[in-house]
Design brief:
Blueprint: H1 6-17, H2 23-30, H3 34-46, E1 66-74, H4 79-86, E2 92-97, E3 104-110, H5 113-124, E4 129-136, H6 147-150
InterPro entries: AsnC-type_HTH_dom, Dimeric_a/b-barrel, Tscrpt_reg_AsnC-like, Tscrpt_reg_AsnC/Lrp_C, WH-like_DNA-bd_sf, WH_DNA-bd_sf
Pfam families: AsnC_trans_reg, HTH_AsnC-type
Organism: Agromyces tardus
Length: 153
Amino acid sequence: MNGYDQVDRALLAALAADPRATVVALADRLGMSRNTVQARMSRLEASGAFLSFDRSIDPVPLGYPLEAFIAVHVRQKRLTEVVEEIAQIPEVIQAHGLSGPIDLLVRVVCRDAHDLFRIDGEILAIDGVERTETSLAMGELIPFRLGPLLGRD
């Protein structure tokens, strides 16, 4: 699927507003048949429109109340191997490759400052990592969202 038509956008906006809505509830809200909504949902899912369910799970009740961002500077020839090793650290919940002075931005969760120190040490011990800069997240000010984009033309 190369893009979303108005029906897809309306369906995605309804899901963004109420992620737990049933197919029947979405059909009622959008004035469509249940079969149409189900077919659209199946097509959207098959196209990869939906992100993983993991994104919606809060790590705090799992015992990880702190979140940090670790800027990782890497020897470029080792980037692939560094990413593979970072992915093996369970507390790493996300990582992005960046342009500019930082090579990777790694998002981690941790139990406390000592745990963060340990995680940072694990990353620093990876062959190819030159240095890290760690920032403790003070709070999520704008949560992940796509609702405003779905309303744009």
